[in-house]
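Hi U.,

Before I forget, here's the chain from the pilot set. I'm dumping it here mostly so it's searchable later in email.
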Amino acid sequence: MSEPVAASSLFHELVDAFIRCLPRQSAQALANFQVSDAILDRVDTLASKADEGRLSAEEDADYRAFIELAELLAVIRHRARTGS
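Structure:
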């Protein structure tokens, strides 16, 4: 698997530029964003299947996409909360 996107300084610069473009209310909404229980339940199911080696190709793609997006959102949320 590739290195997490959070490790790149260019990535952080891009996220910072993105956050600076947002109105304060939008940045605050991102800082407070939470994933729904339904999505978390689905990810838990996919994680269990992944641990057991039972993911279909489509499920594997969904699971990997969620992980990558979760990493991105975590950095965006942190930057939106702290401004750094």
